[in-house]
């Protein structure tokens, strides 16, 4: 039997085994059967025997077909409910923003400018790579598109200038650049609500549990004070703990300047893309005061991008990654919502209250955040992590944490999704790209992931004492 067949069989076996185990007392058979399929979907998302979007699509299809959430009409309404979710459309629109950066060349130009003006030393190159990611991060919720699509093509060329290759002096400069790139994209992914797609998915699930939708500014007020010092520290700390053997890099700015010459003068479409992204960010930040929804802003900007030729309609229709995420997230939102619909979350809430009621609020909050963070070792997808754990953690939180502390707690909990990606070579979207570059061995990656992961967790926990 092939490896793929085994991966495909495991989720099926999980569903079948749980299906035929009697439902626990207090949980209906329909709810238990739904949970069996839900857990099979989570296992499928971790193993990925087929594309993740297909795993979610199959999950909602089977649940709807079996009528586990109601009659036929209720079932199909539930199954398709995620496709009408405004947050999912915001994420889809954000992929179009990323496409605009790529097609106009603005993303590459930003990275080259950073190298040109900051890259005279190896430490400076680290900060150039970091700031390239930072500038793009508020506008690009796909950190894979941001780090892997915009930063990587520029940054990976820098070590080659100095003959630092995976099989020839990788520590000279290539290993340092690679680690700074992945570590800083994890930090920026936590810094802004719109810097990581699962952030948006998480706040949607949180909103359904609490009745409060976290705004861009609410997120920024807590996460920026925590992440800015961490962002500034990361390239220097990497320089100290995992130092490059070459300290100076005078050739890098010259190379970047030559590449900028090849790009030519900045074009009207690049200016237009930068302007539209800025307008979108302004409305995301102040949309609540202006009476404009974040998703409305995003889809309007995408319309303008198409009408002005920044991207074409064919570009939009042919963006497989965007449609893949659209289907993937839509089905997972429905699956997560089904946990509440069939009564599983209510059941967990009652039982968790009995088990955890002896903990004081601060201890409970710290325990939940640490557990949420550490469990990421078992997930190869931040999206799967969100879908599997956020609804469960939120039912515990809304049951046991005081109402006035729920919002800051949920921001810090969801805010940990970006930085937790550093702990493994598969922890976040761009990790396999940078790991696959070959400059950092697996053993070294796990060791650095443990060190930086612990530091990032300590900073997240600091937020508990500062903001809750």
UniProtKB/TrEMBL annotation:
A Gene Ontology term for the protein's cellular component: membrane
GO MF terms held by the record: transmembrane transporter activity
TM segment ranges: 30-47, 52-70, 76-101, 122-140, 176-201, 222-242, 271-287, 294-313, 325-347, 359-378, 384-401, 406-426, 446-467
Main location: membrane
Protein location: Membrane
Superkingdom as given in the UniProt entry: Bacteria
Nucleus in keyword set: no
Pfam families assigned: Na_sulph_symp
Family statement: Belongs to the SLC13A/DASS transporter (TC 2.A.47) family. DIT1 subfamily.
The name this protein goes by in its record: Anion permease
């Amino acid at each position: 039997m092939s490896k793929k067949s085994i991966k495909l069989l495991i989720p099926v076996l999980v569903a079948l085994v749980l299906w035929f185990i009697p439902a626990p007392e207090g949980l209906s058979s329909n709810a238990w059967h739904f949970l069996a399929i839900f857990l099979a979907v989570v296992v499928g998302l971790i193993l990925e025997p087929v594309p993740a979007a297909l795993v979610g699509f199959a999950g909602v299809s089977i649940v709807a077909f079996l009528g586990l959430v109601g009659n036929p009409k209720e079932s199909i309404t539930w199954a398709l409910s995620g496709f009408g979710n405004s947050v999912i459309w915001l994420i889809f629109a954000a992929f179009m923003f990323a496409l605009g950066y790529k097609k106009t060349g603005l993303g590459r130009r930003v990275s080259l400018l950073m190298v040109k003006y900051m890259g005279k030393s190896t430490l400076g190159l680290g900060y150039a790579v970091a700031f390239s990611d930072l500038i793009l991060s508020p506008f690009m919720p796909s950190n894979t598109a941001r780090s892997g699509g915009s930063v990587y093509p520029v940054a990976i060329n820098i070590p080659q200038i100095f003959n630092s290759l995976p099989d020839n002096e990788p520590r000279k400069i290539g290993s340092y650049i690679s680690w700074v790139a992945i570590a800083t994209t994890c930090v920026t992914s936590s810094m802004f609500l719109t810097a990581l797609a699962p952030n948006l998915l998480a706040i949607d699930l949180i909103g359904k549990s609490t009745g409060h939708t976290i705004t861009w500014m609410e997120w920024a007020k807590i996460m920026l004070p925590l992440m800015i010092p961490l962002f500034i520290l990361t390239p220097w700390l990497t320089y100290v703990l995992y130092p490059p053997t070459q300290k100076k890099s005078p050739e890098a700015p010259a190379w970047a300047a030559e590449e900028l010459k090849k790009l030519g003068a900045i074009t009207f479409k690049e200016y237009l893309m930068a302007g539209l992204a800025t307008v979108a960010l302004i409305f995301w930040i102040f949309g609540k005061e202006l009476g404009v929804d974040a998703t409305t802003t995003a889809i309007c900007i995408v319309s303008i991008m198409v009408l002005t030729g920044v991207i074409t309609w064919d570009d939009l229709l042919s963006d497989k990654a965007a449609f893949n995420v659209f289907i993937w997230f839509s089905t997972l939102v429905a699956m997560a919502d089904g946990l509440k619909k069939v009564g599983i979350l209510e059941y967990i809430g009652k039982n968790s209250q009995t088990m955890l009621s002896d903990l004081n609020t601060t201890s409970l909050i710290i325990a939940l955040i640490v557990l949420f963070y550490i469990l990421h070792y078992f997930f190869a997808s931040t999206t799967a992590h969100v879908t599997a754990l956020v609804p469960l953690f939120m039912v515990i939180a809304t049951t046991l944490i005081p109402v006035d502390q729920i919002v800051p707690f949920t921001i810090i909990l969801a805010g940990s999704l970006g930085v937790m990606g550093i702990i493994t070579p598969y922890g976040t979207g761009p990790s396999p790209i940078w790991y696959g570059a070959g400059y950092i061995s697996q053993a070294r990656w796990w060791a650095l992931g443990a060190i930086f992961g612990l530091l990032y967790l300590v900073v997240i926990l600091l937020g508990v004492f500062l903001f809750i």
